[in-house]
Specification:
The chain is of the alpha+beta class. Helices cover 42% and strands 36% of the residues.
């Protein structure tokens, strides 16, 4: 016989599993792009996407 506590436990496991699965799917969609990051005085000035599957490039410009 399934008690109320068992139902809560099963529901919690299903919800947590779905959240973890959805998180991995979103992370998979975001990966694989190449970006150029341009920083001025340590602050992000611009982030430019160059397309798919390449090395990332970071340009730091010290301004006095």
């Amino acid at each position: 016989m399934i008690t109320k506590g068992d139902k809560i436990l099963i529901f919690s496991v299903i919800v947590i599993s779905f959240v973890i699965f959805a998180g991995f799917q979103v992370y998979g969609l975001a990966g694989g792009k190449t970006y150029v990051l341009i920083e001025i005085n340590g602050k992000l000035y611009q982030r430019v996407s160059l397309g798919e599957d390449g090395p990332n490039l970071k340009i730091s410009v010290p301004v006095t």
